[in-house]
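Trying the structure run again after the queue cleared.
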Amino acid sequence: MTIDNLKNPTIALGTWAWGDSGEIGNGYFGSELTQIELGEMVDKAQAAGLTLWDTARVYGMGRSETVLGEVLKRYARGEYQLSTKFTPQIAGTSDDPVADMLEQSLANLRTDYIDLYWIHNPADVRRWTPHLVPLLKSGKVKHVGVSNHNLSEIKLANQILGDAGFRVEAVQNHYSLLYRGSERAGIVDYCRNEGIPFFAYMVLEQGALTGKYGPENPLPQGSTRAENYNGVLPTLKALTDKLASIGRSYGAEAADVAVAWAIAKGATPIVGVTKPRHIEGLIRARRITLSSGDIAELEALARAANVNTRGWWEQEM
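Done. Tokens:
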């Protein structure tokens, strides 16, 4: 077994958007990224105790990891945790593609170990999960998790790792007010019963639940997220208005309340961050305690919106 317990934070920081290309982002998210702002943001996050950074080799095909490694180099390695992923869909043809992809991530991130290493998508659980065992034994990986796996796949991965004296130590799936497939499928309950931290990505639905965007102020044109969400922004207005209303009572914003909802549901939200003000919002979100009435009303409005935000890469849970 791994000798130290995973340090599970209240909130983890996502860097998917850091894979956008160029000094000014113009890719999937249409993000505007500068090294100066990213450095300021990392400093603010580290000072606030937000120190688990989530990335993947596939985000920008290594760019997200490289940028993250560059901005974190000012800190001692023990001052932050790194979470990155093996993605079967881009695996090479060597004898051990998992180990090879890990080595690429280690080089990109300027480190000799990863705190939390994930099988990104299931593809073939029996094929890929056993490759995690030697990585755990080597110390290059401290903890392992599975992402975008359904309940039977999570249980199978846990069994395979258990036979070698390890276990699934985290699960990461898309989970938000608009997309609660992991809840309906029993995954959230399974994680709770087994003591497995459940990480929720896309809690803000790539900006659609921040309250910043609407019919009069759509997501950045030309980006993939604009294609996916701009058409449903009018449908989401009642929900985002309620998020904003609850936020005002806490001196917070709509996005902070959406993050607080995930925390209230027992999840560790992974929230994409690109600017220092995003960290300020997460600090506010940690202080919000939603009432059962607030949660019920938000969930009712989300159901009424009836928007399916399952990504093209995700299977039905």
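The longest strand covers residues 141-147. Worth checking whether this holds up in the mutant runs.
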